Amino acid sequence: MTKLIKWAIYLGAILLSSNVYADDIEILHAWTRATAPGQESAAIDLMISSKQTATLIGVKSSLAQSAELHTMQEEHGVMQMREIKSIELPAGTVINFSETGVHLMLIGLKMPLKEGTKVPFTLIIKISEKETLELKAEATVKPLVENHHHHH
């Protein structure tokens, strides 16, 4: 075998040794609401799936001073929002944030979010003890208030 073929096989083995690629993780239907005047935070809702077991351990956005993983839970008849450190992504399972009470919280928005624009964000996903992946995505900004008018 020539050195070039050996080198190509070696490089291929290195590239294939990674457990999860960005293509293995899918982000669907990411969205947020337009912000009201003076509003300094926004929640992003989405669905995410991973072909292999992974853990969502963080989020960041250039449009916010900070970003956190949050959950909503009812306590004594009152909805409470709390920061969580991670969200498990079981292999082959779609995690629907709105169904699980989980969302991404953008805090200290640097500008208002306008309907029809996109909000860039990056998910930080732990793949193994030694490997993390940063996955860039965008959330569509929906109207501040849902329009329920139906034309017949």
Q: Which CATH architecture?
A: Sandwich
Instruction: Supply the CATH superfamily name.
Output: PCu(A)C copper chaperone
Share in helix: 10-25%
* CATH hierarchy class name: Mainly Beta
Compute the separation of the termini in Å.
72 Å
Question: Care to count the β-strands?
Answer: 10
**How much of the residues is beta strand, in percent?**
over 45%
Provide the number of structural domains: 1
The number of helical elements comes to 2
Q: What is the string of helix and strand elements? A: HEEEEEEEHEEE
Largest beta sheet, briefly? 10 strands, mixed
Whole-number radius of gyration? 19 Å
The poorly predicted ranges are 10-19
Mean pLDDT: 85
Q: CATH topology, what is it called?
A: Immunoglobulin-like
Shape, please? globular
Structural class of the helices, strands and pairings?
A: mainly beta
Structure description:
By secondary structure, the protein is mostly beta strands. It has one domain: PCu(A)C copper chaperone (Immunoglobulin-like, Sandwich). Strands 1, 2, 3, 4, 5, 6, 7, 8, 9 and 10 form a ten-stranded mixed β-sheet that branches. The termini are far apart.
